[in-house]
Amino acid sequence: MTAPAIELKGISKAFGPVQANKDISISVQPGTIHGIIGENGAGKSTLMSILYGFYKADAGEIFIKGQKTPIPDSQAAISAGIGMVFQHFKLVENFTVLENIILGAEDGAMLSTSLGNARRELKHLADEYGLNVDPDAVIENLSVGHQQRVEILKALYRKAEILILDEPTGVLTPAEADQLFRILDRLREEGKTIILITHKLREIMEYTDTVSVMRRGQMTATVKTNETSPEELAELMVGRKVLLRVDKKPPEPGATVLDVQGLRVVDEAGVERVKGINLTVRAGEIVGIAGVAGNGQSELLEVLGGYADGTGTILVNGSPIPLTGHGADGQARRAAGVGHVPEDRQREGLIMEFSAWENTVFGYHLEPEIQSGLLMDNKAIYEDADAKMQRFDVRPPDPKLAAKNFSGGNQQKIVLAREIERNPDLLLIGQPTRGVDIGAIEFIHQQIVNLRDQGKAILLVSVELEEIMSLSDRIAVMFDGHIMGERDPAQTNEKELGLLMAGITDTSAVAGNGGNDTTEQEVHADG
Amino acid sequence: MDKMPKWADIVLIPLISLLLAAFFSALVILAIGENPIEALKLMIDGALMRSAGWGYTLYYATNFIFTGLAVSVAFHARLFNIGGEGQAMLGGLGVALVCLYIPWPHWSLSILGASLGAALFGALWALIPAYLQAKRGSHIVITTIMFNFIAAALLNYVLVEMLRPVGAMDPASAKFPDATHLPSFQDMFSTAESPMFRGAPANVTFFLALIACFVVWALIWRTRLGYEIRAFGQSETAAKYAGISPVRITVIAMLISGALAGMMSVNTTMGESERLILNSTEGAGFIGIAVALMGRNHPFGVLLAAILFGFLYQGGAELALWTSIPRELIVVIQALVILFTGALDNMVRHPLEKLFIALRRRNA
Amino acid sequence: MDFLTLLQVLDTSVRLATPLLLACLAGLYSERSGVVDIGLEGKMLAAAFFAAAFAYYSGNAWLGLLAGVGASIVLAMIHGLASVTFRGNQLISGVAINFLAAGMTVLAAQSWFRQGGRTPPLEGAARFNPIELPFAIGPSDAEAADRPLSQLIAEAGPLQQFYSELISGHSILVYLALLTVPFTWWLLFRTRFGLRLRAVGENPAAVDTAGVSVVWLRYAAVLICGVLCGVAGAYLSSALQAGFVKDMTAGRGFIALAALIFAKWRPVYALWACLLFGLFQALELRPDIIENVSGLKVQVQLLGALPYILTVVILAGFVGKAIPPRASGEPYVKER
User: How do the domains of chain A map onto residue ranges?
Assistant: First the structure.
C-alpha cells in the first residue's frame, strides 16, 4: 500500500477562547477526491488552512507522502506540493490573470521573463485540463467561475499535487459546478489528490471517494462514500437524528400585500443589477426567490428594505412606496409595515458591538413608545428584550451580552424576534439559515411557517435551493436581474430550477411532476 | 465570551499604556541630562500643591475637556477629526465677534452668547469636511488637516486686515468690553483674608466644560441621536439597513464635534486673553486626540485625562521656568501617550487577553 | 514678466518641490503597500534636525544626511511596529510620530546647542552646495569674469539662460530626487518586488496565500519611506536652508500627502503634482509677480493656503476621482 498523500496527526488549534480544532487525525489517499463535511463552525476550513500554512497549529504533525513535513507558512505548503482554493478568492482584483498567477512564484527579479514563461506554461495547462482563461484579462472583469479557474491555475502553476477546495460551488451555477467537477475528475485521473470541503451532501455523495465528517472541532468519522448514506452523514455531523422536512399546511393566500412592477436597480458602479421584474406576494403565502448568489436578489431585497435606490413601482397593501430620495429608507419601510431580516446579519442586521437588548430596537429606535421625553426609555427596552429573548429561545438568555458573543443561530433569533414581533404585514427574509446550526434551522423554519399561517406575506431569498423548495408556496427564479419564471414547488424539481438559475428557460426536457429528490434538507455549514 | 473583563479594558489597559508613556518620558528627561524624579516633583509642586497651580491646571484642563469631547464624539461615529485646532481657531473668531459687536449687559448673558458664537463658528468650520466626507467620500482626516492650515491663514488675514485696531502692531483684536469679563476662580473663591487661585486663569468656563461632559454623556448613551451615532460608527452597512442616513449622521456628528472644539475658545479668548490673538489655541486641538484616546471616548474618562494633561501642561511650564527643560517636553509626552494608548494599543492588549484566557482556563 | 523672471520662479519652484517630491514618493511606497502614513512631516522634521546637527559636528553634509536618514528610519520603524506588527490605527500612529518629532527635535536641539531649538548655521562642506553642470554659467564663471552671476546670465541667449538658471546650479539632492521618479516607476512596474508591493497594498491575503510575507513587504515599504523622508529632511536643513530651525518642515509633509492624492499614487504624476505645489510656494515668496501678471493684489495668506485649498478641491473629487490602493489603512488580519 502506498503512503497516504497527506496524514495529519493530533492537530489542535484555538482562536482565543474558541477551540476550533481538537486533536484531529486524518489520512488522505493519493489520487482520490476526499470530502470533508461538517456544520458551520465545525472547523473544516481551519483544519485545511493549517494544512496550507495559513494558520499555525498549536499542536500536531503533518506528513506528506509519509514524510514528516512542518508547514509554518504557505510557502512551505506550496513547496510540499499543496495548493488551496479558498472560499473567498485570494486574487488581486486590478491585476491581470498572468500577474496573479506569477505573484509569489516569479522566476527572478525582473517581471518580463516571469510573465513570458508563465504565458507559455498557462497555455500548456489550459490545453491539458480544459482551463481556458485569457491571460491578459483583469480579474475584476472576469466572472466568478473564471476567477475560480485562475485560482486553480495558480495552484497548478506552482506544481501542486494536492489541491484543497473550500466550498467551491457556493458561488457557481449548477452548470458551472458541473464543469468544475469535470475538471476535478480530470485532475484526479492525472494522479492529483483533491480535498473538497463542502456542506452539500449531494456533492459529497456524487463526487468523492472518501469522506470525513467533522463536528465541533473534532473528526467524528472517515468512511468510504459508497458505503454510507446522506442520512448517516447528516447524523454524524449533528450528533442526532435530523428532521429533514418542514411540516406545513397548504397555504391559504389572501389579498396581495406586495406588488412589484417593472423594478430596475442600478448599483453604485453603474451596473444594472435588477432588470425590470414583476412580482407579487399575497397574505398568507411564502414566495421564494431562488438563484445563484449575485443575480440581483440582494439588490431586490435592498430596494424593498429601503436602502438602495430603484425605479419602477412597488405597492405595499395597495399604496405605492417611494424608491428614491426622501421616504425611501428603512424607517419609512418599517412604518409601512415591512419587516426585514437581512441577508447578512453580522454586517446589516445587528450591531455586533451593541448588547442584545440594544439590538432588539435596532431600526425601530425612533418609535415613540420607547422614548421618555428627550431620552430613550432604556429600562423598558431592556425588559422587552428580556421577554423576547425568552420567547425566541435565545441562548444564553442574557440581554446584556454583546451580539458578537452569540452563535450564528442565536444572532439570527435576535433579528427574527425583533422583526417578527413588530407584526409586519410583509416580512423580507434573506438567507435565513446561512451559518446557522441545524437545531436553530428547525426553529427558524418553524417561525417562518407560523408567521405565514398568521396571514402574513413573506418574501424569502435564499441561495439554498432545498430551503427554497421546502419552505416556499411559490418559487420565482432569478438570473442576471430577470425573473426567469415562477414554479409551484410541488410541480417542479431541482433540475428544472437549476436550468432556470443558469438562464435557460427551455425546461421541457426536465420539467417533472414534482421533485422526488427534493425532500432532503441540505445541512448548512460553511465553516 | 469576551476575551477579558470589562474593567481590564477600560481601566487596566489605559493605565499600563500611561505607565509606558511615563517610563519613556522619564528616559527622555534622563537623556537630556535632567533628573526625572526631580522633574516630577517640580511639576507636582507647581501644578498641584498651590491653589494658583490648580488654577492653571484646571484652566488648561478646561480646554482639553472641550477638545477631548470633540474628538470623542467624532470617534463614536468612526470619524477621526484632526481639525479641532482649526475649529477652535474659528470658534475664537466667533467669540470675538460676539463680544466686540454685541453690547452685553452682564457676563452671564455674554458667556451664553459667546458659547453660541464659538459653537456656531467651530461647527461651520467642521461642516465642509463633514459634507465632503459624507457626499464625496473625501477622507476627513486629510481634509480636516488641510482645514487647520486654512484656518490659520484665514485667522491671520482677519486679524491683520480687519480686527486689528488702527495703529496697533500685534495681529490681535481690540480688548473685549468689561461687561464680558468672566469671573475667574480668584474672583469666585477668594475671601478678603485668604486669597485663592491668585493670578490663575481658571474661570467659570470650567463649569461650562463639566456641563458639556454631562450633556455629551447623555447625548451618546441616552438619546436616539447618540444611538444612531454609535450604530453608524460600528457599522455603516447596518446603519443603512436600519434607515440611519450616513450623510446625516456624519454631518451631525462633525457639527457637534466642531461646536465642542470651538467652545474651547470661550475659555481662552473670553476667559483668559479677553481679546482674540493669533495663537490662542496653542495646540489644544491636537491634545484632544490624546485626551480622547486615554479617556476611551467616555466623557468621564475625558474629564480625568484632561485634568492629567492640564497638570502636565502646567507642570511643563514650571519645568521650563525653573530648569533647562523646554516646554516641548509636553509635546513629547503627548506623543508618547497617543502612541501607547492609541497606535500601540494591541501591544498591551494582546498579552493581557492571553493572560485572561489562560487564567480562565485554569479556573475552569 | 520676462523670460528670465519666469526662469527664476521655476528655478525656485524646483528647489521647493524637491522636498515635497521626496516625501511624496516616500508616501507612495508606504501607501502602495497598504500603510497610510500621515507622519511624513514628523520624519522629515526629525531628519532635518539630525542631518543639521551631525553635519555641524562633522563638517560633512553626507554624514549629516546619513544621520538624518537614520533618525527618519527609527520613526518609520515605530510606525511599522504600530501599523504592521501590532495592527494599530495607522492614522493615530502618524499623528503620534509628528508630535514626537516636533517635541524631540526641540528638546535635543536645546540640550545640544542651547540656541532656542535651532542648530548653529551650516557652512561650506557641511551643506549640500549647488553643482555647476558642464557648459553652464555658474559662480566660477562669475568669479573668473569678476562680474555678478546674474549679469552674466542676463546677457546669455535664451537656451543658455534656461540651462544655467533652471537646469544647472542645484544641489546633488535635487538631481537625486528627480532620478528617484523613473527609478520608482521601474521598481514598481517592472520588478518582482514592485509586483509584490503593489499586490500587498491591494489584497494582502493574496500575497500571504501566495507564500510571500505580508509583514516583510510592508516593513520594506515603510523602510524605503523612512529613507526618502530622511533625504527630504536633510535637504531642508542642509541644502535649501543652512541649519535647522524649530518646525522647519512647516506642513510640507502634509502638502506631500496632498500631492500623492493629486498624483493618484503614481510616480510620474507625483513629479508634476510636486512641481505645481512647488510653484505655489515659489509664488508665495514673490507675490509681486502675480500682481504684475494678473493686475490683482493677492493676499499672501491666500497664496500660503492655496495648496491646502487645492487639495480639498481635489479630494472633493471635482478634479477627477482619486482611488487609493484598496487595502491602504487596513491592518492585515487573517480572516477567520
Answer: 6-238, 253-337+424-527, 347-423
